[in-house]
Amino acid sequence: QVQLVESGGGLVPPGGSLRLSCAASGSNFKLNTMAWYRQTPGKQRDLVASISTTGSTNYADSVTGRFTISRDNAKNAVYLQSDELKPEDTAVYYCHALVSIRSLQYSYWGQGTQVTVSS
């Protein structure tokens, strides 16, 4: 079993910055592609950014140029640096990982962290 634990959410004024972190724990696993999603009430969960094991990244158009995803494979962690935050970035942010365990691949989610952009 693998657990993903997010941290770093909070309240920030428009134009501000936040750094979200997500750490994976467990045993005998390998992290593959990791990603951040976000969700607002009544809407579907949308991809914000993803990063492969080799560091290739993909961003939603709405965050390109403002957000940066990165990972630390030694720490089994993924990060989301969010700059120039806008009120429309307000959402619950979820960490996601594709995880290999004994040659099978599984999908794991974190519990979510609230980001609120407001003055």
Which descriptors would you attach to this protein?
seven-stranded mixed beta sheet; single chain; 60% strand; elongated; 119 residues; four-stranded antiparallel beta sheet; mainly beta
Describe the structure.
The protein is mainly beta and 119 residues long. Helix content is 0%, strand content 60%. The strands form two sheets. Strands 2, 4, 5, 6, 9, 10 and 11 form a seven-stranded mixed beta sheet that branches. A four-stranded antiparallel beta sheet has the order 1-3-8-7, with no helix packed on it. A hairpin with a 4-residue loop joins strand 7 and strand 8. The radius of gyration is 14 Å and the shape is elongated. The mean pLDDT is 97.
Please describe the topology of this protein:
Layout: E1 2-7, E2 10-12, E3 18-26, E4 30-39, E5 46-51, E6 57-59, E7 67-72, E8 77-82, E9 91-101, E10 104-109, E11 113-117
Parallel strand pairs: 2-11
Antiparallel strand pairs: 1-3, 3-8, 4-5, 4-9, 5-6, 7-8, 9-10, 9-11
Assembly type of the chains comes to: single chain
Q: Rg, please?
A: 14 Å
| Poorly predicted parts | none
Order of helices and strands: EEEEEEEEEEE
Per DSSP E runs of 2 or more residues, the count of β-strands stands at: 11
Average per-residue pLDDT, rounded, comes to 97
The backbone outline, from C-alpha atoms, is: elongated
Q: Summarize this, please?
A:
The chain has no helices and 11 strands. It has strands spanning 2-7, 10-12, 18-26, 30-39, 46-51, 57-59, 67-72, 77-82, 91-101, 104-109, 113-117. The mean pLDDT is 97.
